[in-house]
Amino acid sequence: MAKAKSAAKAAPAPKAGAPKAAVKKTAAKKTAASKVAPAPKKTVAKAAENEELVFTRPAALADRATHYCPGCHHGIAHRMVAELLDEMDLAGRTVAASAIGCSVFLYNYIKVDTVESPHGRAPAVATGIKRARGDKFVFTYQGDGDLASIGMAEIMHAANRGERITVVFVNNTVYGMTGGQMAPTTLIGQKTTTCPGGRCKDREGAPIRMAEIIAQLGGTAFCARGSLDSVKNIRQAKKYMRQAFEAQTKGLGFGFVELLSGCPTNWRLSPVAANKRITDEMIPYFPLGVYKELEGDATCGSLIAPGTAAGGAGEGK
Amino acid sequence: MAGKNELTFVKGNEAIAMGALDAGCLCFFGYPITPQNDIPEYMSKAIYEVGGEFVQAESEVAAANMLLGAGACGVRAMTSSSSPGMSLKQEAISYMAGSDIPAVIVNVSRGGPGLGDIGPSQGDYFQSTRGGGHGDYRLLVLAPSSAQEAYDMTHKAFDLAFAYRSPVLILGDAIVGQMKEPIRRRQGTTAASNEGAQWRLEGTAAGLKPGKKPREHRILKSLFLSDGELAGQNQKLQAKYEAWKDLVEFETFEVKDAELVVVAFGSIGRIAKNAVRALRKKGKKVGLFRPKTLYPFPEKALAKLAKEGKRFLTIEHNLGQMVEDVRLSVRKHADSELFCVYPGNMPSPDDFEAPILRALGRK
Q1: 3-state class of B53 per DSSP?
Q2: Global pTM value
Q3: Which CATH architecture has domain B250-361?
Q4: ipTM score of complex
């Protein structure tokens, strides 16, 4: 049986009880406007004769403006996925399952074959894809409303079965697309449009920590939580995402990466203040780190007759 | 396995599983519910023998969404359930219809509403023929009345699903599913290796030599937000459903000189046929009309019979659902009486003779 590194590798466990502060409205007013990033190049650029091209758009990322709000972290997460699809040479054999929420338009930005899933069902849809075509790279990209609420059964069981799929989980503690309602991950005290007085543990329950839950399931080969609030954390998050991709490409089992992300619009904060909120309030409750990692070439389980070795039904037929 | 032209003695549920396998079904997604359990049980072994995959899903919701994923890849796939489970599958079925994704869904229906019972019922007629989930869509609905028909219709359902890029529903019941009868299996699958090659999801570099420029990525979706886009998609779907009208199938028995035509489908159609046969022996001018496709409904054939001056009695194992379609079909010249067998009761041919005679006697 596979040996899993325990959650010891993760950051220290959070202390019991609620994090100190809810979102402060004052923060929005005082913070300076976010720095505007240089305009993206229109195409995958070519360097002039005497220049060296050091940064460009990944080939798997579409050349178009996104519908995301200023300061939203979906853009970073999308780019991260696209970079890895390019770097690992996966884009041409990838089939993705998009989810419901702001990221429903994933297929407009990442140039891979994609099917739209009903709310929360992307891991079941991805299971169907992978079982039909075991030779494809299959990933889902889901928000916290989608994955941790309505999709709880699908994510738990896809992980538990050790489906050879990868799940990118973007956690911004609100339902973004529908206007900032309370999510299962909303922090205690955080005000949303459906908990206007702030989330109360006795009434709405405690925020759900998904990475910790997924790590407990037998089919999970890799599970980590990263954050998109700083350059340092973004670089680390990409390493986690690579490992979550590799859990699938190496046939080890289910790969899961959670990304703590900002939603300045629904948090009523400036992008910079939103980043600070991730650092000060989200990370203490949602500790960063690797929660499960299979060692060596162990897999999360072996199939017994009459099963087949995750070859997929349609492969080569 | 039986050789060519040999008879196999199986339950209707097993016949459905065999029909799927012989049609080239490579993925099955199941969840336990009575009275359809023979289908996932049979598939959990047999589908591996043809190199396929079986998943016992965490719920009917998940099973139907797995079906959506496999269908999006252009692979022949199926799920089966019974009435309460069918309610849960409607979400994914609506998405599949909206996204033009082919799939075969089997409902071995039971009594309702709610948990109902585990006996036969035709209470899901409305759900089956009106789409079932949200939005303007229809399913092709085939209603077998025997194990052989269950086999043949399931086999054919895959061809239809891929020809029209649509979910196709087999609507049986506990009688058809649990009854054991001899069937004859067909040889060879009708699945083509390039099935769905124009639209299936397989990666942008599929079939390309390394280094060749990948094609544009494909999207299978049912979300259309731009002005007029959703209207266009609905128009396309309606055109598809209009084209299905040619696929209509029905059985007639002794209708030529009949004064009264009994309209019944599925297992009730078969029981009613026995009642009609018995009454014919007594010299009564009655006949049977059994729709085999419930959607499209054989409205033209019924209208023709109405024009010839025949009268109608609809017999159903529910509180009166198909009778609405019969009345719509014959409305210019006739009406239809209704005899309901309440779900929870198990009818015999004798039970139908009295209501048929009553309807025949009323002029």
Answers
A1: strand
A2: 0.91
A3: 3-Layer(aba) Sandwich (3.40)
A4: 0.96
